[in-house]
Amino acid sequence: MIAEILFPEVCGLYGDAYNGNYLAMACPEAEFHFTPLTETPYFSDHPVDLICIGTMAEDTQRRVLDKLRPLKGRLEALIDAGVPILATGNAAELFAKRIDYVTEEKTAEGLGFFDVTVKTDLFRRFNGKVLGDLDGMTVVGFKSQFSFLYGDNSDSYFLKCVRGVGLNPESKLEGLRKKNLICTQLLGPLLVLNPEFTEYFLGLAGVQARLPYREDAMAAFRQRVKEFQDPKIQFGHNR
Amino acid sequence: MKKLRFYLALWAAKTVMAAMRLLGRNASYLPGKLAVKLCPDFLAHLRPPKTVIAVTGTNGKTTVSNLLTSLLRGCGYTVTNNALGSNIQGGVAAALLADASLAGKVKTDVAVLEVDERSSLLVYQDLKPDYLVCTNLMRDSIKRNAHTGFIRFLLDKAIPAETKLILNADDLICAGLAPQCQDRTYFGVSAEAPATGASLEGLDLVYCPNCGGNLEAEYLRYDHIGRLRCRNCGLSSPAPDLRITAIDRAAGTVTLAQAGGEQTYRLLNDNIVNIYNLCCAVAVLTRLGLSPERIAAGLGAVEIVKSRYDHVETGGLKITMQSAKGQNPGACARSFRYVADQPGERKAVFLLIDDKGDSQGSSENPCWLYDCDFSPLADPSIGQLVFSGPRCLDQKLRAEIAGVPGERIALWPSFRGGGHLLDTEGCRDIYILYDVYLEKEALEVKKALMEKEAGK
Fold first, then answer.
1. Given an 8 Å threshold on Cβ–Cβ distance, is B367 in contact with A220?
2. Are B378 and B274 found together in one domain?
3. How far apart, in whole angstroms, are the C-alpha atoms of residue A201 and residue A199?
4. What's the pTM value of the predicted model, to 2 decimals?
5. Which residue from B minimizes the CA distance to A37?
6. CB A57 to CB B396 under 8 A?
7. Residues A61, A63, A65, A68: is their CA dihedral positive or negative?
8. Which of B327, B391, B397 is best to mutate for the A interface (most A CBs within 10 A)?
9. Is A63 in CB contact (< 8 Å) with chain B?
10. Contact B80/B106 with Cβ under 8 angstroms?
11. Are A235 and A128 in contact (CB under 8 A)?
């Protein structure tokens, strides 16, 4: 497998860096490219089997968009070919039509793979949890964000929210999905927190791997699922 | 009408404060919160002391505030401060109204106010500090502080242009704070510069905040604290106006250079973080016009707050207590590094860093553990680790991914107890690393260990 982790030096906030790191630990035979923002992405002119990108600061998000916009055609070809791509946290927003930064009074054109827009308000931070269902598989995760997405993802969502919010507080459908492109506002080391989903995601790239410390990862996962199913646990609030 | 509302709020808050104190409560937040609720621009109507110093920054603001307060009081000034209370708007209001007359005049000479970065807009819109001190800006709570760019954005927006800044020259994020402020003093440490060639990868500052170009580090002390320069636009860490040029650990002194000469000061704590805090406090007092001799004399009589660090020995068992500040990846990583760097081959770590608040009615987000460098805990000198609290399974997994052998780790899923899991026969140097809100539970573990040792 050839995998590319995009811009890990700036797109790894909140532990997102460990999605790529965990995959690299799980697949020691694979070829991993950790591409900094100052270099041309490896996928632009090489075949890849998997791509990850994680959470970043808002000004970095605009720089990343500037970097990726010229590669939109190549990304589209990879998506159409079924290459698994995981965008976590606000990296998910890159694939929307447009991002409106209301506090900074700026707008950025997104990659436009989904008919949704993003509203980013630095004076409203939302913290939440999601207990999600992916075709019968449980996925758990956390949100800490300034943004919500708006638009119809009823035929292009990642998870059905059993608890927690989806694209925005009125939505119960979390994230965006197009073939194997998975965009989710769940952030942090999502793959470490969800070993079963990690195996599923690697499976999309045709890889079967024994995850590092799988038993301990599963024990932590089961504990979290149990907590998230507890009706006494709060699921979201603004700060 | 506005004034009437202010006076009603002031008198109501003072009455509540008096009642709370009669009941033995410290009244360091609630009366202030009430005052602001009754009169939202309460702080704007108070007549503050002649000098108001705001102390902010990710790490060190409590230490610097306490140090400034002690030193100023030692020099004969009367000081208002919020050391016993909260550092958000209500806490600031409570501290000021406690020292205010019934007419709203704060009767002290100076206010030293620790201000949470997130509260900057609310506080500074009504209370314009004469001086604002920023110790550093680093990654902090995911939920509240997001990332350093966001905190910079808030502070840049909040700090009044006429405020005089005292900033860490060795923190390029902090050094560029509030460009609207012309009066800027920088402090730094040039003594014991580390080796060159450090990488900025994974830190809060990777690219130039000015042009986005590649930064290079002349050296880094910890995180992004060090001397940096942009290869593209030439932006670099500013030259400090006051800097520590020598650290003499044996003599317990530091030498600080500034325009006009050098002065030797007492070294309160030889941890580099606290050396920066010391330098910061001296910079503030110098700006206030205190002579180096007067500052040096004052430093002879103060101590770093003991609750953040304590060490006892009983029957050959050494127990070190150190605050590790949960959800603050840098502060935790530094405490892990501290343990690994200490001499000794028979160390054990008792970790108590969960968020106590999140344990009630929530499930703590463990993502910050992956922003925190756990690799020092894999040091072979650390024979055992006990992870306690509801998130102990997450911590074990994180530690294993960082290279800590799983067989060294014991788990105790509660905030209370767990000390019995420590192998005090095999490991004679015990480090209890705890979140500031879990001090009581950490002290219980320490007490149990001491009693067990005494009962042998």
1. no
2. no
3. 5
4. 0.93
5. B207
6. no
7. negative
8. B397
9. yes
10. yes
11. yes
CA proximity to A184, closest of A149, A213, A209: A149
Contacts of A227 in chain B (CB under 8 A): 363
Chain A residues with CB-CB distance to B146 below 8 A? 125, 144, 146
Let me know: does B390 contact A37? Beta carbons within 8 Å: no
Check pLDDT > 80 for residue B317: yes
Q: How far is B206 from chain A (nearest CA, A)?
A: 7
Say if CB A43 and CB A86 are below 8 A apart.
no
How far, in Å, are B12, B152, B231, B321, B378 from residue B221 at the CA level?
A: 49, 21, 20, 23, 21
| Contact residues, chain B, for A9 at CB < 8 Å | 200-202, 206
Which of A15, A38, A213 comes nearest B400 by C-beta? A213
pLDDT tens digit sequence for B23-35: 999 899 999 999 9
Count of domains forming chain A: 1
Asked if A39 reaches chain B (Cβ–Cβ under 8 Å), the answer is no
Interface probe with A: pick from B365, B385, B395, most Cβ of A within 10 Å: B365
Residues 79-138 of A with CB under 8 A from B: 104, 122, 125, 127, 129
Among B149, B363, B371, whose Cβ lies nearest the Cβ of A228? B363
pLDDT band at residue B260 using 50, 70 and 90 as cut-offs: confident
| Chain B nearest CA to A118, separation (Å) | 18
Q: Does residue B403 sit in helix, strand or coil?
A: coil
User: What percentage of chain A has pLDDT greater than the value 90?
Assistant: 97
Q: Are residues B138 and B163 in the same domain?
A: yes
Query: In this predicted model, what pLDDT tens digit does every residue of B360-382 receive, in sequence order?
Result: 888 999 999 999 999 999 999 99
Are B34 and B91 in contact, with CB atoms under 8 Å apart? no
Using the 3D structure, point to which of B260, B276, B299 is the last residue of a domain. Answer: B299
Overall number of domains in chain B: 2
Indicate the residue among B267, B299, B331 that finishes a domain. B299
Beta-carbon-side half-sphere exposure of residue B184 (alpha carbons within 13 Å): 19
Helix (H) or strand (E) holding B220: strand B215-222
Give the pLDDT of residue B453.
Answer: 85
Q: Which of B91, B141, B131 is nearest to B110 (CA)?
A: B131
Nearest Cα to B334, choosing from B355, B302, B309, B317? B309
Range of the domain at B325: 308-454
